[in-house]
Amino acid sequence: MAESILLRETIEPGIVRLTFNRPDKLNALSTAMIEALDAAIDAIAADASVRTVILTGAGERAFVAGADIAEYQGNRTRAFAAYQFESRRVFDKLEALRKPTIAAIRGYALGGGFELALCCDIIVCAESARLGLPEGLLGLSPGGGGTQRLTRAVGRHAASDIMLAARRITGQRAYELGIAAAVVPDAELMTTAIERARAVKKVAPLAAAEMKRLIRQGPDSALPVAQAFEQEVLLRLYGTRDGQEGIDAFLAKRDPDFRGE
Ligand code: COA
Questions:
Q1: Which of 6, 65, 120, 132 could pair with 168 in a Cys bridge, judged by C-beta atoms 3.0 to 4.6 Å apart?
Q2: What is the pTM of this model?
Q3: Per-residue pLDDT tens digits for 53-67
C-alpha cells in the first residue's frame, strides 16, 4: 500500500515529513515507492498549509539504497525504460516543488537515493551517512540526474572520484564538499532537520519559492541573464502583500505575518 511504503506525517504546523519505509530492503526505490512519492509531492504542492518537507528513510541503516535492483533483472527493456522515465519525472518534480525540501540522511544514500537527496534544497547528514553513485559497479550509470546534479554541486573532479571510483563518501566529507549543510551524531539528525525546517518556515513562502527557482536555474544561464531574472523576481516580490508586510513588520519591530500573497 502506498501509505505504508511512504509515510507522511505532520511534525508540527507547516512541517511535513516523508519517510521511505522499506527498511528490510534499505528503502530501495520500487516502482510503487516512486508512485507514492509522486502523489505525495502533488498533495504537498496543493496544500498551502505545508511550508517545508523533510525527506528521510525508515530504520537505522539507510536513507535510500537506490533503485530496486530486483526490478531491473531480466533485460526487460520496456519496463526498465518506464521506470527510468518515471523516476526522472518525479525527481524533477521534487526539485521544482515551490517549497523548500530538506533531506535528512542516515546510513546509505546510494544511486537513486543520493540523486533524490540532490533534488532537495538542504541536506543534513548523520555521521553514519554514506553517499555514492555506485551504478558503475552494476555495469550501469546513474539515470536520475546524478551525473549532472552532483557535478554541478561539487565540480567535475570530486564528482568523478565519487562515480568513476564508486566511492561512498561520509556525511563529514559531504559537509566538506558543500553538499551537506550539517553533519551531526545520528541521534541528533531529526532534531537538526526540524530546526532547519523551523528556520525555513520564517522565510516568506513566495520569496522561498522564487529563490529556489533562481538557485536552480541560475547556473544554467549566462550571468547577465540570471541577474536580470533575479532583479525581475525581487521587483515582483516587492509588490506583493508579503513583501510590504515584511518591511512594515521590521520597522514596527514585530513578527511578520506572511501569507504567501
Ligand atoms: N535494490 C534492491 N534491494 C536492495 C538494494 C537495492 N538497491 N539495496 C539493498 N537491498 C536489499 C538487499 O538485497 C538485502 O535484501 P535481502 O535481505 O532480502 O537479501 C537487504 O536490502 C539488505 O542489504 P544487504 O546487501 O544484505 O546489506 P549489506 O549491509 O550487506 O550492504 C549495501 C549494504 C547498501 C552496500 C548493499 O545493499 C548494496 O550495495 N546495495 C545496492 C546499492 C546500489 O547499487 N544502488 C544503486 C542501484 S541502481
A1: 132
A2: 0.96
A3: 999 999 999 999 999
